Amino acid sequence: MSPPKDPQHTPNGQELSELAGRLAAEQTTMTLATASKDVAWAAPVYYVFYKSAFYFLSDPKSRHIQEALNSGQSSAAIHAAASTWQEIKGLQMTGSIEPVEGGLKALQALKEYLKKYPFTKEFFDKTASLDLSSFTQRFGVRLYRFTPAMAYYLDNQIRFAFREAVKL
């Protein structure tokens, strides 16, 4: 669903959620923001949007993971490439990051991640099993989930400075 070209029409809540969901599925990089002792930090990660959450691999010792787990809070932003102000669109979110333990949900999220980023298979022997423990052993990373508590969709194609709360 493309944003409406009619400047008088503002998409309804369901249309906005669909636009936001499509943007989340199409983009590849999410910037996570955390803070500690009034000092902010931002870190870009590859992600997959799956079942209303954002799954990504990260080093458990990284600053953004440590700060997110210590505070219980984080925020994230995703945006499409834009060369004019009219093309600016994205998501602004606040929520939490938590490690994903093994199990069916983790396996499904990893499967979606590998489908979105097939190049990750190149890091492993063709006969290797691609599971969470393989990634942990090879790269020292874990699977994490950013779950938005609040999300805003912004889209200047709808109108300048358009920003509306959405359900993902």
Nutshell version of this structure?
This protein is an alpha+beta fold and 168 residues long. It contains 4 helices and 8 strands; from the N terminus they run H-E-E-E-E-H-E-E-H-H-E-E. Strand 7 and strand 8 form a beta hairpin.
Structure overview:
The protein has 168 residues and is α+β, with helices and mostly antiparallel strands. Helices cover 26% and strands 36% of the residues. It has 4 helices and 8 strands; from the N terminus they run αββββαββααββ. It has helices at 13-26, 63-71, 104-116, 132-139; strands at 29-36, 39-46, 48-50, 53-58, 74-79, 89-99, 142-155, 163-166. Strands 1, 2, 3, 4, 5, 6, 7 and 8 form an 8-stranded antiparallel β-sheet that branches. The longest helix has 14 residues, at 13-26. The protein is globular, with a radius of gyration of 17 Å. The relative contact order is 0.21. The model has no long low-confidence stretch (mean pLDDT 90).
Keywords:
168 residues; alpha+beta; 8-stranded antiparallel beta sheet; 8 strands; 26% helix
